[in-house]
């Protein structure tokens, strides 16, 4: 396959993945308007269970299948690739149905353990219903992961990208329409609306599956022709195929579960600890903000940053394999600096504008009560999430993925040990502090392993990060000045329109200050490259490129 086709395929897959993620964030804003904070709590109860299984089905399997298929295709053994495809479909149908059956039957027990007490806003029956509605999607989602991985193994990224976007679009449209009809047309309960919203995962998966079947029908003549040209198939049993497949998938699956697993700890401990701390009346309200509404805002800068950073990881693998340590160090430096350069100002911007942003996107009243304060404290976790994601990818690139798994286990143990004590002492903020502490342990461990095995020196990163911090703080002061100036005429408490004006004005001026300071100091060129600086000269400053 030519380099141009490979790059185009990588771009298509990256674009599809992040388009799907962005869609998965923005739908929550109209959904919040329909179901409110407590509806988000109920949605989180159900979706947290599904997310674990979804991550198991999608975080590692497509990549592992792709690696397996690519390996045997390169040998000319297309027959073994097709064998894995057929056997994998059958296996995933069985495991998907078993996962559905287990989750469906254990839903009442999970609901009781999640709520932790009687007399809360959401009942055991409501939580059980929501979990059962979302569990149906598990029947077909694992099968989709096999099909996507098979196409990727043939260097065909379009089916995965298009099916991801269609799946998300169908899910969102069904979710919002169903919730609107239940609440606004039939005046039904929020629980019923949330139940249909979680069932949308199944409807969306059907949409994605239709796209994949369409691609299969279209590509089958070509794939059959390859099968006819196959060499003598490898002497490998089905059990050996699956062993090899899951060896590839294991680390990717586990790392993909990082954020869901941390949230899973909260699902079973948050309410219990809050009730023990005497906060029974507001525990579900706070759970909805911390687990459903605020994380989606924090994921926006995280997704953009990791999209930039992780595109460099494949080159890290090659440099390590070639033994080019100087180039490897440069590439790791560039990856880290890109993350800090993009995420740090976003974190400070979210923290400074937390109240108007929450009021604009969700609700002004909730922003004043708790949403703004929680977003301000939660925002720095975007940097922690980014570093963990990139560190895990770098360790995989240098063939030390076991250390990424160990780091996640260590972080999870810290989260489990400290979560309930922290919530008991600090109430809802304790959950965020325990997550931050757990990720800190994971990140410190992975930094040490990267330093040890990639011989990486952090001096350049530290020096440039200090400069980025100074510029980000200057940006924060500029945003504070904007807020203070606008407060003479309006505050976020004046309503959603005022919140929007404050948020947009602060974001635009803050971004301008940060990027101008970075450009004038030469930091922008050092981090993002000469091509971007020349583009800014031509498009924004109307100067000739140098």
UniProtKB/TrEMBL annotation:
The keyword Membrane applies. Keywords: Cell membrane, Membrane, Transmembrane, Transmembrane helix. It is found in: Cell membrane. It holds the Pfam family Polysacc_synt. InterPro entries: PG_synth_SpoVB (IPR024923), Poly_Biosynth_Transport (IPR050833), Polysacc_synth (IPR002797). The chain crosses the membrane at residues 12-35, 47-66, 87-107, 127-147, 168-187, 193-216, 245-265, 297-317, 338-357, 377-396, 403-426, 432-450, 466-486, 498-517. It is a multi-pass membrane protein. This is Oligosaccharide flippase family protein.
């Amino acid at each position: 396959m030519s380099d141009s086709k490979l790059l185009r395929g990588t771009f298509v897959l990256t674009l599809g993945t992040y388009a799907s993620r962005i869609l998965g964030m923005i739908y929550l804003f109209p959904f919040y308007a329909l179901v409110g904070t407590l509806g988000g709590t109920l949605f989180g109860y159900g979706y947290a269970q599904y997310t674990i299984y979804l991550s198991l089905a999608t975080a590692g399997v497509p990549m592992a299948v792709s690696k397996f298929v690519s390996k045997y295709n390169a040998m000319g053994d297309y027959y073994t690739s097709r064998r894995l495809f057929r056997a994998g479909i059958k296996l995933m149908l069985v495991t998907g149905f078993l996962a559905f059956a287990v989750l469906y039957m254990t839903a009442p027990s999970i609901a009781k353990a999640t709520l932790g007490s009687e007399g809360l806003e959401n009942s055991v029956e409501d939580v059980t219903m929501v979990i059962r509605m979302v569990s149906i999607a598990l029947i077909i989602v694992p099968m989709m992961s096999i099909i996507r991985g098979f196409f990727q193994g043939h260097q065909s990224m379009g089916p995965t990208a298009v099916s991801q976007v269609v799946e998300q679009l169908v899910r969102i449209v069904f979710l919002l329409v169903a919730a609107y009809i239940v609440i606004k047309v039939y005046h039904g309960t929020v629980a019923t609306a949330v139940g249909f919203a979680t069932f949308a995962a199944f409807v969306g998966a059907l949409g994605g599956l239709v796209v994949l079947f369409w691609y299969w029908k279209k590509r089958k003549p070509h794939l059959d022709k390859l099968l006819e040209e196959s060499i003598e198939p490898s002497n490998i049993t089905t059990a050996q195929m699956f062993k090899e497949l899951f060896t590839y998938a294991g680390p990717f699956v586990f790392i993909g579960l990082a954020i869901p697993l941390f949230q899973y700890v909260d699902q079973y401990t948050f309410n219990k600890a809050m009730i023990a701390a005497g906060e029974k009346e507001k525990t579900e309200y706070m759970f909805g903000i911390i687990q459903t509404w605020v994380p989606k805002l924090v994921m926006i800068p995280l997704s953009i940053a990791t999209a930039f950073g992780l595109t460099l990881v494949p080159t890290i693998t090659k440099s390590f394999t070639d033994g080019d340590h100087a180039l490897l160090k440069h590439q790791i430096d560039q990856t880290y600096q890109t993350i800090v350069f993009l995420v740090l100002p976003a974190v400070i911007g979210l923290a400074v504008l937390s109240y108007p942003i929450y009021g604009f996107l969700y609700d002004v009243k909730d922003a004043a009560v708790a949403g703004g304060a929680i977003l301000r404290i939660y925002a720095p976790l975007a940097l922690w999430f980014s570093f963990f994601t990139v560190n895990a990818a770098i360790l995989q690139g240098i063939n030390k993925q076991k250390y990424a798994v160990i780091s996640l286990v260590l972080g999870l143990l810290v989260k489990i040990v400290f979560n309930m004590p922290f919530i008991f002492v600090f109430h809802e903020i304790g959950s965020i502090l325990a997550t931050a502490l757990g990720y800190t342990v994971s990140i410190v461990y992975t930094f040490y392993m990267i330093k040890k095995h990639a011989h990486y020196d952090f001096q350049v990163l530290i020096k440039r990060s200090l400069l980025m911090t100074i510029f980000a703080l200057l940006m924060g002061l500029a945003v504070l000045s904007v807020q203070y100036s606008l407060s003479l005429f309006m505050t976020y408490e004046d309503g959603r329109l005022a919140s929007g004006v404050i948020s947009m004005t602060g974001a635009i001026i803050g971004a301008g200050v940060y990027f101008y300071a970075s450009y004038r100091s030469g930091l922008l060129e050092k981090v993002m490259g000469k091509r971007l600086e020349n583009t800014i000269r031509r498009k924004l400053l109307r100067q000739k490129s140098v």
